[in-house]
């Protein structure tokens, strides 16, 4: 099968995000200028550079009470900071609860019963029990083609790692089993890994 996205795919559901899979989930916590906390998952998320360490996530829809975007991007525009919380399999239901199109005044930490902790380098809350959390300073927001498509880039200026996830000096993803996003309503979980040496190593 071949299709041009501009012409439509003719299938019951869009296959695009099932093709680009699995995707890590950035559970983005932000705080508005008014002091209100927000927490929402984004699967258009990844690390993009080592030195300095940088990450990005993309928001692809809008809410009526936020104009051209959603709460996360709106808050980051106001404050210039955000935190990326890593999602473990055990927190899948809490993460899913925070994905709803809740009104801007909703505190998703409270809604989903998630314990919060203060970040160290930025004025923002983080998920207290997350395997890891990356405190970020906004570097740029890029408007992408299409309505409400924004890519948010940040420099990581603080890193939290849960002590039980460190094994022999390495951050061990199998100790918490990262949740990943697939297509449609599907998710997956990382429960095994293997290593490959690059040519010449």
UniProtKB/TrEMBL annotation:
Gene3D superfamilies: Electron Transport, Fmn-binding Protein, Chain A. It comes from Roseicyclus marinus. Residues 18-173 form the Flavin reductase like domain. GO terms for molecular function: FMN binding; oxidoreductase activity, acting on the CH-NH group of donors, NAD or NADP as acceptor. The lineage of its organism: Bacteria, Pseudomonadati, Pseudomonadota, Alphaproteobacteria, Rhodobacterales. It comes from the Bacteria. This is Flavin reductase. Pfam families: Flavin_Reduct.
């Amino acid at each position: 099968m071949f299709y041009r996205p501009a012409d439509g795919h003719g299938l019951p559901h869009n296959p695009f995000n099932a093709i680009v899979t699995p995707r890590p989930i950035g559970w983005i916590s932000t705080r508005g200028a008014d002091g209100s906390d927000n927490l929402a998952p984004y699967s258009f998320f990844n690390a993009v550079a080592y030195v300095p360490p940088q990450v990005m996530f993309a928001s692809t829809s809008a809410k009526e009470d936020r104009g051209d975007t959603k709460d996360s991007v709106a808050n980051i525009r106001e404050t210039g900071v955000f935190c990326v919380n890593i999602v473990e399999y055990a927190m899948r239901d809490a993460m899913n609860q925070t994905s709803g199109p809740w009104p801007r005044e909703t505190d998703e930490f409270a809604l989903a019963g998630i314990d919060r902790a203060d970040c160290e380098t930025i004025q923002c809350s983080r998920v207290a029990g997350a395997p890891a959390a990356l405190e970020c300073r906004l570097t740029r927001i890029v408007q992408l083609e299409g309505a409400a498509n924004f890519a948010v880039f940040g420099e990581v200026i603080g890193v939290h790692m849960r002590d039980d996830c460190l094994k022999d000096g390495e951050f061990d993803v199998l100790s918490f089993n990262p949740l990943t996003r697939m297509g449609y309503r599907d998710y997956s979980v990382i429960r095994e890994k293997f290593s490959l040496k690059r040519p010449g190593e």
